[in-house]
Amino acid sequence: MASNYIEHLGGKRSYDLNVQGNQSPQSAQGAQGTVSVGGIGNQDATGVNAQVEPYFILSRNIVFIIGTAIIVVYATMSSQMVATDGQWYLSLKKPSWQPPNIVFGIIWPYNFAMLVGATWIVATRLSTTHRLIWLIFLALSVTSSLIWAWLFFMSHLLLASSIALLFATLFTIPLLVISFQASPVLGIAFVPYQIWLALATSLSFGYSDQ
After folding, report:
1. What CA–CA distance (Å, rounded) separates 170 from 177?
2. Which residue has the higher pLDDT, 43 or 122?
3. What is the mean pLDDT of the chain?
4. What average pLDDT does this structure show over 125-139?
5. What are phi and psi of 99, to 5 degrees?
6. Are 179 and 186 in contact (CB under 8 A)?
7. In Å, how far from its chain's centre is CA 11?
8. Are 67 and 134 in contact, with CB atoms under 8 Å apart?
9. How far is CA 59 from CA 56, 122, 209, in A?
10. Could you report the per-residue pLDDT of 36-55, keeping only the tens digit for each?
11. Residue 168: which of 181, 154, 151 has the closest Cα?
12. Stretch(es) of the chain classified as CATH 1.20.1260.100
């Protein structure tokens, strides 16, 4: 048996050629083999066995753990920084389109629970590339949201905080797309979070006009 390795985009592809009798490896070059991802290949009648060995695999458990950790940090830090009962915040003139306070108490638990569930579904149903993109944009969106909270409630820099929240909204769009790719139901469940971020961004800019 002769074994040849060919560098292939996204992984190393190995071809094992069974040589019988006087058949040379060159005569088997035109044979068709089966290719599978993840290092498992099947040998066909021509004696060609092809395997794809990925360079990088991000397991679903690792994705779920990292994603959940990001969301826990998101929930913990935002609850510490966002003070809607503070004297400074209460002194601000609220935009006319701001929802009642009870809506805030309902939507945020939903958002955090949905993000955890979405992370698990993406981790179990989609590819390593999708998982990596999910984690990157989740981290970017959460970081931008926390920057908004710090700039708005801690530093009282209203315009700068609004820009940060705008970035959070934009960074969440790829997450919405990936959610629909994982499951239409998940995509629909993700829509309220995207809408909420857009609404929060508009409210923040409304406050910055003061």
Report:
1. 12
2. 122
3. 81
4. 96
5. -70, 165
6. yes
7. 22
8. yes
9. 10, 11, 46
10. 444 444 444 444 444 444 45
11. 151
12. 60-208
Q: What is the pTM of this model?
A: 0.73
Question: What would the two tokens of residue 135 be?
Answer: 């984690």
* Three-class secondary structure assignment of the chain: CEEEEEEECCEEEEEEECCCCCCCHHHHCCCCCECCECCCCCECCCCEEEEEEECCCCCHHHHHHHHHHHHHHHHHHHHHHCCCCCHHHHHCCCCCCCCCHHHHHHHHHHHHHHHHHHHHHHHHHCCHHHHHHHHHHHHHHHHHHHHHHHHHHHCCCHHHHHHHHHHHHHHHHHHHHHHHHHCHHHHHHHHHHHHHHHHHHHHHHHHHCC
Assess contact for 202 and 148: CB atoms under 8 A: no
Each residue of 175-196: pLDDT tens digit?
Answer: 999 999 999 999 999 999 999 9
Phi-psi region of 47 (alpha: psi -120 to 50; beta: other; left: phi over 0): left
User: Could you identify the residue written with the tokens 């970017």?
Assistant: 140
Q: Identify the pLDDT of residue 86.
A: 85
Among 198, 190, 188, CA closest to 168: 198
Q: What is the pLDDT of residue 56?
A: 60
Q: CATH number of the domain at 60-208, please?
A: 1.20.1260.100
| Token couple for 179 | 């959610």
| Distances 60 to 53, 86, 104, 121, 123 between C-alpha atoms, Å | 18, 41, 31, 9, 5
Q: Which structure tokens are listed for 113? A: 């629970």
